[in-house]
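Input record (one chain):
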Amino acid sequence: MSAYIIKRLGIGLPTLFIIITVSFFMMRLAPGGPFDAEADLDPLVKANLEASYGLDKPIGTQYLLFLKGLGQFQFGPSTTYPDRTVGELIADGLPITLKLGVTAIILAAILGIGAGIIAARNRNGLLDATIMGLASIGVAIPNFVIAPVLTLIFGVYLHLLPVAGWGDGSLHYWILPVIALVLPQVAAIARIMRGSMLEILSADYVRTARAKGMPERRILWRHVMRFAFLPVMSYLGPVAANIVTGSVIVEQIFSLPGVGRFFVQGAINRDYGLVMGIVILYATVLILLNLLVDIAYGWLDPRTRIK
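The corresponding structure, as predicted from the sequence alone:
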């Protein structure tokens, strides 16, 4: 198992380096700069500002300096928030983003797996058709459509929940953002779980266990669930990616002071340091989550481990 983990890390670290490199040069080569929005800015003042942030140097030199700072876990100052460093901004927004993301991932897994099991156990019945119909709708509608609809219904019409801001961080402030993140993923997981359950339930060893008189509950938990869960486990990596990237949009829609909103503001203002810091954070989190999924998959099915 240790060799399996080391090989996965050997894939993840070069991937992270490639993401950092591509993102750095894409940001620098994109039209515009962090100070172009200031229409009346004196050219000399602009030149001095660029020099203070190291933007007057050749792009290759900027890249090497960025890697040097990254090796010391420093992303530098933010041009959008000049009195704060990128690390401070990430530290402020990360708890909110993590709270939303972790809650959404857990709920998506629990609700999706539960709905898939219920649908499979009631194959071709009314409950199965209802769950799969709702799942199809959930997969088809992205969270940037779901979020405004939830805001309109529960905030504007019913006045039940706040539609923007974080307030004191109490439950009612993050119900709508979590729902907007969770619904598409619940639908996808439910469809995968149902298909996997039906495939395992029709396997020869399950029919043999039934023929021997083994109780249905024992068959379900001992022979079906472990292997039916494998496709869902492999999909949890993309689920995490979808929730992390979706949180960027959801945080902006609901005006949440999380990392995603800082990312949008940084991209609009060409805040190179802020965008790169958040890109590296997101990429690291996704690589680690996929590593955990691979480890869990290898534990559930040792045949998949790489020797």
